Amino acid sequence: MLVADPGTAADWRRFRQEFTDAGPERRREMLRERANQSRTADLHMIGRAGLGHVGGDMSVLDILTTLFFSVLRVDPEKPEWDDRDRFVLSKGHTAGALYATLAAAGFFPEAELQTFAGPLSALNGHPNRVKVPGVETNTGPLGHGLPVSVGMAVAARLSSSSRHVYVVLGDGELQEGSNWEAAMTAGHRRLSNLTAVVDRNRLQQGARTEETNTLDPLDDKFRAFGWDVLEVDGHDHLALHEAFTAPRGDRPTCVIANTVKGRGVSFMEDRVEWHHKVPSAEQIVTAEAELAR
User: Using a CB cutoff of 8 Å and minimum separation of 24, what contacts does 9-15 make?
Assistant: First the structure.
């Protein structure tokens, strides 16, 4: 198991405090810069490894950054703290985005990112809970994260814990029937301590989601299963923060975050081939320059 980087964890705490004290525009700028730094780290990880899912990483990083740097009750130096919020990345193939975020928060040294997908590395192509602090459950086979998260929310309620469970799902992943069994159970049990976030970039491996299996009207489907639903721009950090921290009723919440696959890199945006295409060294230079603007 990797261990925390105390210096980076201290920086993360200062970031969180500054965010709390800042006004709206400063908050927006802080999260935008932090997300783009993680995008740059992710590009270099995938370039070194020669594999990864860069398009989905880019679309989900604003969601992950907002959660870890402004919302989640977690402690990078105490990843097993009993009353921590739980976070599950159901779309586990975007592990690179999660690793970049966890390292930036100090869950483990950022130097470990250089080992991504290498021999004996803890940073596998899909997240592993026995190797990486901050990973609550192994994911990769799609359709498993929401069912596990429902179980976590039930467990929190049974133990009278105030912890909240957040799970990020891919939209193509919602074609798996197990998600809808879990959604039905969460609605039936009125799990108000559960928030599902859909990374709605409308692309999956090889095609657009609506060409493969129509998901819309996605909001109405979740409402029919007993959920409250919010729909936001998944790259607007303040809108995400507001959705994640809004007062909750007595039902689970689904946040549909409308995103763009490959966000932040012009030649990747909304291009299906960047689901798992690997950028060249020259493309990484170009992408890094765009992200630094």
Answer: 9/75, 9/76, 9/77, 9/105, 9/106, 9/107, 10/106, 11/106, 12/69, 12/76, 12/104, 12/105, 12/106, 15/69
